[in-house]
Description:
Shape: globular
Largest sheet: 8 strands, mixed
Radius of gyration: 21 Å
Number of helices: 13
Amino acid sequence: xxxxxxxxxxxxxxGSKVGGIETxxxxxxxxxxxxxxxxxxxxxxxxxxELGKVVKLPVGDHTIDFLPVVHIPDKEIHGxxxxxxxxxxxxxxxxxxxxxxxxxxxxxxxxxxxxxxxxEFAPIGxxxxxxxxxxxxxxxxxxxxxxxxxxxxxxxxxxxxxxxLRLASRIVCVNQNIIERFKKVMPQFVAKSELLTVSVDMDxxxxxxxxxxxxxxxxxxxxxxxxKDPPLMFETMRRLHDARDGRFEFHYIGTSDPHRxxxxxxxxxxxxxxxxQNSEGVAAIMRQCHAGVLTSFFEGxxxxxxxxxxxxxxxxxxRLPQFDPLLVDGESGFLVERPADPVASxxxxxxxxxxxxxxxxxxxLDPAAIRARAVPYSTEVQMPKLFExxxxxxxxxx
Length: 398
């Protein structure tokens, strides 16, 4: 008896939207076990599909059912909306409501569950009439820097979160900090919560030796949202270029425009912008670089971090508690506490990367030992647990 899994997320499986959540969604429909049949309710970026009509799409070694509910062009899907009516989330939710009866029929089955990544879709998920697994990726707090409309409409996000957690059959949190927050402010949801981070495909992000040569290459993949602190990242790259007398490159993988940050002008001459890359392209670029960088004010569990480690690349980061077991000084990277002064932050990060370069050149860092840090987060270890959770919820209901 096949398990029918319905996933609601504003993504086109044929498209180029990237991010940690999108990586998780793609892994779910690319790596689902044989007893699962996946229905992805999503977005048509190309405008060539009939809305509300299920089409079969090949993804990797599998085929999924894809049900687009709204047309949103590729150029509109990558940036953070500035006005409510531009919100991809809102437009997708309205489309899903429009085709709710179709979604209910397409996702029906004797064993069926729904998985959601965003709080805003919780009422829709519950209206499908099946157990709901709600993933909580973390969105920071009201005081944090961010580009999305969540910053302006924080009270709506807070209400949506409580509604989503109440409606969920099971809550899956990508780091322990989220569960600790529940214990303090929403203890009624702790009993149905569990920890399971995003996963990394260690076959795709294969181990590779460090590249040869005297040019230090650092790579970052993802959106350049405000909460990622691009000014600190770029200033650190500038200082490294100066400290190494020009023997330095910064590689950016992603579709964001870095020019909106004034600090980018100083590093543009030695920045290689790779634009959108699929996972194979990201892995290939990582293999040609020496290290990764993270300067975020907050995160869930970045796929980019796990992918870097899986490739055998250390990462230098501003410390967040969930990074502690992954980034160990002298083995897999370094962590810096964020000073109050941005200049001090850049100085500390620069010093950390210069030390990291010396460790790489001296052979102190072993790519295989770095990769070992990612093993507990691999798709082989983690994803069976999530699929089993769906099976258990469906079995308990039948």
